[in-house]
Design a protein that fits this description.
The protein contains 10 helices and 16 strands. The chain is α/β, with parallel strands linked by helices and 364 residues long. The chain has 2 domains: 156 residues, Medium-chain alcohol dehydrogenases, catalytic domain (Quinone Oxidoreductase, Chain A, domain 1, Alpha-Beta Complex); 143 residues, Rossmann fold (3-Layer(aba) Sandwich). Strands 3, 5, 6, 7, 8, 15 and 16 form a 7-stranded mixed beta sheet that branches. A 6-stranded parallel beta sheet has the order 11-10-9-12-13-14, with helices on both faces. A 3-stranded antiparallel beta sheet has the order 2-1-4, with no helix packed on it. Helix 1 packs across helix 10 and helix 4 packs across helix 5.
């Protein structure tokens, strides 16, 4: 393969006997091809994972189709990963070799191919990783990281919706029942994570989905679910929220029509803040409706990143998977066969899936 740019964590892993392989994108519009790739050791505050499963996200087919955010070709994609720790940097104390973890692979903001997940080994910042219980399959754990991170950032961080952060081990607060949040797209990966995060603190959650996914979304913790195809869906959402304190609308889809509907709901209830999972969504805002930051969540930071990462990654994810407050939803649709199946997985996401997360099993 062509040479990659040099990064601080690009020194070869001297003691590794395995060879790394990756699914490479050679140009925009090309199919991914599996070939050998550099095997790197972790830099400061990083860990090296032997990937057992990777998940596919919409950004992956957008990158493949258009080359968006690709700095150099050949390029390695992928942002969701679960596997075992094989190396840790000397300044890491909360992870060790052999730990089972799930993580966000932040190659988009860092530009470092070592930080991509569509390969056998991935380097990740430790603050974007969490240990997973032994009874959680790698294929299930891989479905969580990016959706959970996107949901948490949009809901809780400053300049976004700024909702009080979720309860990790305590009981939901009774007073939060009088506070309502709209989640548009409750059966999506981001929407499912958002609902679970809000339900942990006892908020009233209004969500949309197709009628066939009502039970799924209610089981996540939504208070009421509305059919997004109903021409009167916004009217129903407005009536369901009357008399409650509106905390905001989180649009997990980020399309023009979902943005307009979310904003209409806020405006009818006296105003509030709109936030989209896709930072480029830019609806017209009437009086009383504001917009959370359009900037994407910073997946790379100094000294562990923003405070919300500690809340979500070091506390909520691991503990939530143990006590049942967090489940890997939507369920994984698993493709076995390793990196050779990544193209197929991307195509399934491109065509659209409902209440499923496409996951490729790397190690069986």
């Amino acid at each position: 393969m062509a040479d990659f740019p040099t990064f601080a964590s690009d020194a070869k892993l001297e003691e590794a006997s395995s060879v790394n392989k990756a699914a490479f994108l050679s140009s925009a519009g090309a199919s991914l091809k599996v070939d050998t790739a550099p095997l790197n050791q972790p830099g400061p505050r990083e860990i090296l994972i032997r990937n057992h499963a990777v998940a596919i996200n919409p950004i992956d087919y957008k990158q493949q189709d258009t080359g968006i955010s690709v700095r150099t070709f050949p390029h390695i994609m992928g942002m969701d990963v679960a596997g075992t720790v094989v190396e840790v940097s000397t300044d890491i104390t909360n992870f060790k070799k052999g730990d089972r973890i799930a993580a966000v692979a932040p190659h988009l903001p860092t530009g470092n191919p070592a930080h991509a997940s569509f390969q056998l080994y991935t380097v990740v910042p430790a603050f974007l990783a969490s240990k997973i219980p032994d009874d959680i399959a790698f294929t299930d754990a891989a479905a969580l990281p990016l959706g959970l991170t996107t949901a948490a950032w949009g809901l809780f961080e400053n300049d976004y919706l700024e909702i009080p952060r979720p309860s990790i081990s305590g009981s939901p607060l009774p007073e939060n029942k009088e506070k309502v949040v709209l989640i548009w797209g409750g059966s999506s990966s981001v929407g499912a994570s958002a609902i679970q995060l809000l339900a942990a603190s006892g908020y009233t959650i209004l969500a949309t989905s197709s009628s066939k996914n009502f039970d799924f979304v209610k089981d996540l913790g939504a208070t009421q679910v509305f059919d997004y195809t109903d021409k009167d869906v916004v009217k129903g959402l407005i009536e369901a929220a009357r008399g409650k304190q509106v905390l905001g609308a989180y649009d997990a889809i980020g399309a023009d029509d979902t943005a307009r509907s979310s904003v209409e709901w806020l405006h009818a209830l006296g105003g509030g803040k709109y936030m989209s999972a896709l930072y480029g969504t830019d609806p017209e805002l009437p009086d009383g409706v504001t917009r959370g930051s359009k900037a994407p969540a910073p997946l790379q930071g100094v000294d562990g990143g923003p405070p919300i990462w500690n809340v979500i990654w070091q506390d909520f994810m691991g503990e939530g998977l143990k006590n049942g407050k967090l489940r890997s939803k939507p369920e994984a649709l698993v493709l076995k066969g390793g990196l050779a199946r990544v193209n197929e997985g991307i195509e399934l996401v491109r065509k659209g899936t409902s209440a499923k997360k496409i996951v490729v099993q790397i190690v069986e």
